[in-house]
Design a protein that fits this description.
With 453 residues, the protein is of the alpha/beta class. The chain folds into two domains: 278 residues, Alpha-Beta Complex (Spore Coat Polysaccharide Biosynthesis Protein SpsA, Chain A), CATH 3.90.550.10; 121 residues, no CATH class. It has 17 helices and 13 strands. It has an eight-stranded mixed sheet, sandwiched between helices. A three-stranded antiparallel sheet has the order 9-13-12, with helices on one face. The protein has a two-stranded parallel sheet with strand order 6-10. The protein starts with 7 loop residues before the first helix and ends with a strand. 50% of the residues are buried.
């Protein structure tokens, strides 16, 4: 059991309920406007797809003052709107508790997992509280692979607007895929299904009081599942419609904490990721279909202004993080930047080199980690601005091809990263890894090449 005990209110509730087959967790902070819909969808999904199983819906709240917890407890599903069931329906308990610990989503998840372990749940799922597109089917798609197909971790796979999820598309997805050899398209998506044995593993960890408890929790969950050989899959959930933000707005805290979690886990799991070359897709459940998406307005000029200021103000920090040729290329980009940024282009190769060099600098300069992570923001905004300019007139499938190309560039650069990590000279022109190797990857049936270092 994790060191931090459950709140007394939660502990007493677990003693009363005693057991549950399924636990659904909904972390929240001032989400009264949307959380009622999420609770109703979860309740309907449990009633429709798992009528004979006992279930608990737990709202783990961060101190909301807008009536979020009251919205959870008052949410009702009209039985007349559910499909007729051939078996008796066991109503799900609905609970709402304030969590303890570091403020953030990770602490909310911790309470959900503690309750799932206390209730001896066979499967647990967590969903965001600001979702407008969640349907009852999401509960089935997140839980069924755990209960009936033996998977330990179910990641979401959904369609998003091409400018939604830019941290995922530009850093977290290509880097995680390159490192651990499994293509999980939304590694920080927010919705997950988890087995009892993986819940137990999460609660054994000692890093709940770090930035994992804030924005780093999603990639932490995904990375542990993949790196430690748990069975991982994805479920197609359709569209993700939520309170999305302009990627040019202030996402610096989220970027810093997410990338910090990725870089920290890179150090822990280096003996694992150095073995894998190439990648395989995680198995995908659900029927894929095209969906309509909300438009997202992007302020490219503001992002490019931040990049210009970064080049002017962060030179000494970037010297710590970037190799001289990479730094020179970045400065040349800023010096030649037109006022409107119309033809601005930060290519895949330069961006990949920058990210991997930042990851290595995080390892080699432990006293400057916070400064190094924060200094990545202007470069990230430059990459997003370039991506927006390049994809303005592209449809979703064409945008996905560009993201795939970026992922392959990351995979091409992996031998250079491994050499750098091992303290060796970086090979010139390291080639693209083979995709038809010999060893069985724990994530699925496809094969990858394995090295013996």
């Amino acid at each position: 059991m994790a060191q931090l005990s459950m709140p007394e209110e939660a502990r007493r509730a677990a003693e009363v309920i005693r057991r549950a087959d399924i636990v659904i967790g909904i972390p929240s902070y001032n989400n009264a406007r949307t959380i009622g819909h999420v609770v109703r969808a979860a309740s309907a999904g449990l009633a429709k797809y798992f009528p004979q199983l006992t279930a608990v819906i737990i709202n783990s709240d961060g101190g909301s003052t807008d009536g979020t917890r009251e919205a959870v407890l008052s949410a009702r599903v009209d039985d007349g709107h559910l499909m007729l069931l051939s078996t008796p329906m066991l109503a799900a308990h609905r609970l709402s508790f304030p969590y303890h610990g570091v403020p953030g989503k990770g602490s909310a998840f911790r309470l959900v997992f503690q309750m799932a372990e206390q209730l001896d749940a066979k499967a647990c799922a967590v969903v965001d509280s600001d979702l407008r597109s969640i349907t009852p089917e999401w509960i089935d798609l997140l839980i069924r692979p755990v209960l009936f197909a033996g998977f330990d971790f179910v990641a979401p796979y959904y369609h998003r607007h091409k400018y939604d999820g830019t941290i995922t598309n530009s850093i977290v997805y290509p880097l995680t895929r390159m490192l651990y050899g499994v293509a999980v398209r939304q590694p920080i998506g927010g919705e997950f299904g988890v087995s009892a044995r993986l819940v137990k593993r999460y609660l054994e960890r000692k890093d709940w009081e770090t930035d994992v408890a804030r924005f780093g929790i999603d990639i932490w969950l995904t990375t542990i599942a993949i790196a430690e050989g748990f069975r991982v899959c994805q479920s197609f959930l359709g569209a993700k419609l939520h309170d999305a933000k302009d990627p040019g707005s202030d996402l610096s805290a989220m970027l810093t904490q997410v990338t910090g979690s990725v870089f920290a886990l890179m150090q822990e799991y280096a003996p694992i990721w150095r073995r894998w070359k190439g990648s395989v897709p995680a198995e995908l459940f659900g029927f894929r279909f095209d969906v309509g998406l909300d438009p997202i307005q992007v302020n490219v000029e503001r992002m490019l202004d931040a990049f210009r200021r970064g080049c002017h103000e962060l030179g000494d920090v970037w010297k710590l993080a970037l190799d001289p040729p990479t730094l020179s290329a970045v400065r040349a980009l800023a010096a030649g930047l037109p006022e409107d940024g119309a033809r601005f282009h930060l290519n895949d190769e330069l961006w990949t080199d920058a990210v991997l060099q930042f990851a290595y600098a995080y390892r080699t300069h432990p006293l400057a980690r916070g400064t190094i992570l924060r200094s990545l923001t202007p470069l990230y905004l430059a990459r997003v601005a370039s991506f927006v300019r390049e994809t303005e007139n592209l449809v979703a499938a064409e945008v996905e091809e560009k993201i795939e190309s970026l992922c392959l560039t990351f995979e091409e650069r992996k031998p250079e990263l491994i050499a750098r990590w091992n303290g060796e000279s970086v090979p010139e022109g390291a080639g693209r890894p083979h995709r038809n190797g010999q060893d069985q990857h724990p994530a699925g049936k496809a094969k990858l090449e394995v090295t013996n270092d």
